[in-house]
Every structure is written in structure tokens, then in C-alpha cells.
Structures
1.
Amino acid sequence: MKYFTLTDNLFVITEKFPQTLAVFISHGFTQLADEGKRSTFGKALQLDIAILMRQLEQDNFIQALEASIDGSSQEARNSDTVYVKGLLPCPVRLPLQETFDEVIELKASQGLKINADLKAASMGLDWIKEEVANANSIDQLDDIYISAGFDMFFDDEYFGRFIKSHELSDPTQWNSINKDFDNENLSLKDPHGRYGIIAVVPAVFLVNTEVLGGRPVPQSWKELLNPVYERSVSLPVADFDLFNAILLTIDNNYGRDAVRALGRNMLMSLHPAQMVKSDRQKINKPAITIMPYFFTKMVKEGSSMKAVWPKDGAIISPIFMTGKNNNNRHIAEVAEIVSGEKVATILSHQGLFPSLNPNIDNRLPQGASFLWLGWDYIESHNLNSKFSECQEAFNESQIVENMKQ
């Protein structure tokens, strides 16, 4: 290392080399953007510990810091390095990471450096949100971002402002998308080329036929709202991306009273991994669980659990990708890898996250369809405000049901 050691603290490094501040902030150390916190937080954290904390690749991160000191940070970003950041779906994180590692090694031998900071979706989006919210310019952001979640990509506090200024856009190179998502009733390709979607997380039903008793098996979201299922449904409330998508889509398709009905029918919140074992619970067994399609394949054969793909469509939470519009010709090259057939096959066939890649057979159940908000809805609504309204209506019905007990 030319300018500092691994035992130097962040305050010392940023004080001596202010040009490194943007690099630290863009890699998640957003506290350093505040001068007071830079002094307190920065003095308390050594560089080596900071790298471990953020699970950064040490050599690449140090190279980025040194490049900023050399005055060539932006030149490096515009020439032979592409920075990728985001979340990978937990069920397929390992095979995806292995694929990316192979690609990174191959491209490095060809002169293209890919600095990828990809974490499991279970870690949540806060580490990226802080970075994007504190960015004063596009130069403080990485080149490509990947994740589910409506709020981060559309809210002006985060990526929305850079989309509106045309500094971020859809980096995929498809002329068309998979036929499963491009028809007269559904089109996930952004007509304005602002947002890319590489795959989706579909929400379906898992029905415990024993607990259901004599009640009919619900075949659609509309049927699920029937009072006959009061306090019988478990929902993935902790999975914010999917839960947001469910509430917003129910509200858009069936109205606010439908959101209240869903809240009335909720028995509990469970993680999908718990849901597939809910038939083994001693008490409070849900009759119906709403979960990502992937987890239905974990159900023990011969159990009382039955998977149902809703007839009005599986509600989807898209996995978005956005990238910089600048002179780095390699961004499109890396985006093509992320949205390419190898990654798409892992997402679709191993993770059961249907891909938008036009060359993939998603192996969907016969007659499977999807429900999603649609670009017109997204264009004309503040999604965070709408979600807050839906959450309030959902919670109100929950409180009323709890008071009855």
C-alpha cells in the first residue's frame, strides 16, 4: 500500500486524503458524510476492521482508495472497472456467487475488472439505501445495482432522482423479454427504458388441507379475502419487498377494503422457511400461507400441504437492475452477464424465480399467470405513500380482530 496501512483509522485516511471520502461513502460508510460523525466514527474504526464489517474484497477496495488518491478514480471507473452492488436471492445466492466469481476471474484475465459487492437478500437494503440517499452526485454511486424492492428504485430519496435526471437506466440489452411476461395482459418491459427487471419473485398459496377443514381451497386472491378464512392466513410480513408488492397489488386490483379483508384474515407472520413446516406447529396452525413459489418445493411429499398457483395470477415482486448512463462501455457488457442465460437459468430453474430473459423456459405450471402493479400505476403514484396507506388499513383490521379475542 502506497499511502496508508490497514491499521490506520478512517478519520486519519480521509483527513490526509479527502478524495477517498467518496469511495468510503459509496461503499456504505455513509456516517463519514457527516463531519462530526467522521471524527467520532472514523477514529474508532481501523481500515482492516471496516473492510471486514462491510464484507468488501480487500484488494479491490484498497485499489479504489489508492486510485482516488492518484486522481484517477473517475478515469478508472470510465475505463476498465465496473462496480456492481446489490442483493442476491437467498435460495440461489451460492450458485450465483460462484458464477459471478468465475466471470470476474475470466474478465480480469481479459483486462476488465469487476468489483462486485453482492450480499444475501436476508441482509436487507439499509446498507445500500444509506449510500444512495447520501450520494450528492451519480459519481458517488456504483455502476450497476441489483435488488428487489419498489421503494428504493422509485423513490426520489434513492434512485428515483437519478432516473429522472437520465443518469440511470435499464442496462439490459434485450430486444424483447420472455413471452411469459409480454402479452396483452402483462408487460414487464419498461416502455421508457428506465428500469430493468431480470426476474420476479412470485407469491402463491400453500394450503394445509387438514386445518382448512370443510372450507373450500381458495383458488384466487379474491377468494382468499372471503371472511370464511378469518384468522387463517400467514403472511410474509418480514419480507418487506414481497409484502409491499402483495398489499399494493391487492389494493390496485381489488380495492382498499380488500386490503382490510387480508388483514382480517391474517393469523400470523411467518418466514417462508417456517411456513413450509407450519403443519407441525402445536397451536395456531395457519390454514393458508402466502409464500414465494420456491418454498412450496420444500414441502414434504405426502403431507397435508397443497400448493396453489392463484388463478388470478401470482403477485410478483420484481428483481430490478439499473445502471449508469456514462462513457463506461463495459457497463453494458457486465449487465449482459447479469441478465444472461447462465444467471437466468440459475434464477429460474434452481430458485424458481421466473426470468425475463427471452431464451429461458421458465417451466411454469400450466396456465400460470401473474399479477403486478404495471408501469402506468408506478408512473402515477407515490409508491411509498400508497404502501403507508395500505399498511395502515391492514393494521386497522388486525387491531379490530385482536380486540375480538
2.
Amino acid sequence: MFAIIETGGKQYRVEEGFHFQVEKLDAAEGAEVTLDKVLFVDKNGEVQVGQPYLTGASVTCEVLGQGRGKKIIIFKKWRRNDSFKKQGHRQDYTLLKVKAISA
């Protein structure tokens, strides 16, 4: 059984026991989070598709931790001006573990 969910403007394919990172959620470590934007559920070949979301379907996850991703460097250079701009960025994320899928 798997589901496709939407959170943080992105879509994820999840199964029970699956660990994945999402955009930062405001939840404490060890708390349970219910994600209700479920787009698709497959129960052993029985498929349910939402338009755009399934009503009554949800995915329950446990928050394993909060973190920050790898640093990326943004470098812009203007030619013939002897000038440049260098900037770094680290994206915050939340690590989740899927406990149950209900549809």
C-alpha cells in the first residue's frame, strides 16, 4: 500500500515505515503529524484518485527531527564591472517517518 501526498509545494510517494524529508513543519520532535492532502492511494491494486485530493484520506507521520540541508552557493558576476555577489543558503527540513495510511 502506498500513497502520493502533497506538502510544502512538493509531491512525495510514501509507504508505511518510509523515512523522508519535507519542507520545515512547525512540530516538535517525537510529535505526530497528520498530512491530509492525499492525491492518490493504491491498496494492493485497488486505486483511488483524488480530484485534486481524496476526501477522508490521511497519512499519519512521526517527526524524527529537524535539520538543515547542505549549503549551496549562489554566485553572480557582472562582466566588465569588476563586481560579483556571493551568497550561501541552507534549507530547513523536517524528517518524517510514515506510521499509517488511511483511505
